[in-house]
Amino acid sequence: MAEPLFGNAIDYARIEGMVSQLVGAIASKPPSLVDDPVALRVEYQVAVDIIKLLTDIRFRCIVFVTAVITAAVTFANVATPGDPGARAAVGVLGFIATLGITIYELRNSQLYEAAMHRAKTLETRLQMKGSSPDGGNAGLFGERPPYVSRDVWAGFTAKQKREPPRNGPFMPFWFVSVTHDHGLALIYGAALGTWVYLFAVGLLALPVPAYLWPDLPLGYLRLISALVGIAAGVWSIYQFLKHNDTRLKQPRPGMS
């Protein structure tokens, strides 16, 4: 009769040995059981759910940022029109909160790319068939079309159609290539620039000693603040795109 694992004292050595045996048994499974279609389909569904969750979080963040900016601008211009200190405080707090959401979005984008890569890999292992005759093994995510013109697509080789180039050439809209990251960069860059504008317009309107800066007419004050806000927005867009271009990315399925 086997001795109980749990008695007056826990036999950690026995438990560790059993866990090692279990791990070894799993690692030595026949190759035919590794790509079990049922297990792969369950994992594929999990990957799809993660992609849906990350996409939902992305849009919630965008809606939250735009709604808060609208409320803050209304508060600064209507509730406290003559209180520059309140404008500066709102600008600082809004900038910090939006910066935090932007950082979260950058990490969220990396996790989204990793989940997308996993879904494409599972589609290949499940041997899903593409919708077009020359689609090869491809599913919903592996077959996503790049945002290119029909003429560019017609010039792609069969291999390029199966694995489109990462960097386009994507079609532009108002001189901006249509990609998720470009859209996100514009949204968060504009949001951060707006907060900087509110802070600058409130700071410059504060009563200060004349040796720091002279009293400025309202028009000049708003112009300087607008230029500072635009500069901050452009810099934020640049930094967002720089992170997108240089961060670690998952390779395409089948590539080392």
Describe this structure in words.
- The chain is mostly helical and 256 residues long.
- It has one domain.
- It is 66% helix and 2% strand.
- The protein has 8 helices and 2 strands, in the order ααααααββαα.
- The chain has helices at residues 12-27, 31-34, 37-79, 84-125, 150-155, 158-162, 180-204, 218-246; strands at residues 172-173, 176-177.
- The chain has a two-stranded antiparallel sheet.
- β1 and β2 (176-177) form a beta hairpin.
- α3 packs antiparallel against α4 (84-125) and α7 (180-204) runs antiparallel to α8.
- The chain is elongated, with a radius of gyration of 27 Å.
- The chain starts with 11 loop residues before the first helix and ends in a 10-residue tail after the last helix.
- The relative contact order is 0.11.
- The model has no long low-confidence stretch (mean pLDDT 80).
Short description:
This protein has 256 residues and is mainly alpha-helical.
Mean pLDDT: 80
Cα-atom radius of gyration: 27 Å
Note the quaternary state here.
Answer: single chain
Tell me roughly what share of residues is in helical segments: 55-70%
| N-end to C-end Cα span | 51 Å
Give helix and strand order, one letter per element, not per position.
Answer: HHHHHHEEHH
* Beta-strand percentage range: under 5%
Tally of helical runs:
8
Indicate the low-confidence ranges by residue numbers.
Answer: none
